[in-house]
Design brief:
globular; alpha+beta; Nuclear Transport Factor 2, Chain: A; 4 helices; 6-stranded mixed beta sheet; 139 residues; 6 strands
Length: 139
Amino acid sequence: MTTIATDLLQQHIETLVDDAARWETLITDDILWELAYAPSVGHPARLSGRAEVMRHVTWFRGAVDRFRFFNLAIHPFEDPTGAVGEVEVEGIIKSTGRVYRQNYVVFIRATDGKIAFIREYFDPVRAAKAMNLPIASSI
């Protein structure tokens, strides 16, 4: 079943890294992006607004090489403004030359035909190893 949210999630995955200009048209100005496990690798837990999101996405695009998404499965919510996706990724972290392999779970909510909310889950241990970073303890 295709909904506005499933379509936006598909476009998010297709354009996030490979088509910056198109990706930017998918988000609202007041977007909220939650990265639940990102503080474990020294990144913010949430990004609020277009400027913060664009700073982080620009950093990410510059930090990876040959990044690709694959095995995407999108699951619509009963509410057509929400969806969740499961996707695998692979790329090279430029600063370390290490391969980055990850599984992501991404929730989105749409408002007025654009992505207004993203919540992303990933394994911070895999990210830390690829970036050669210590894993911050939350204890």
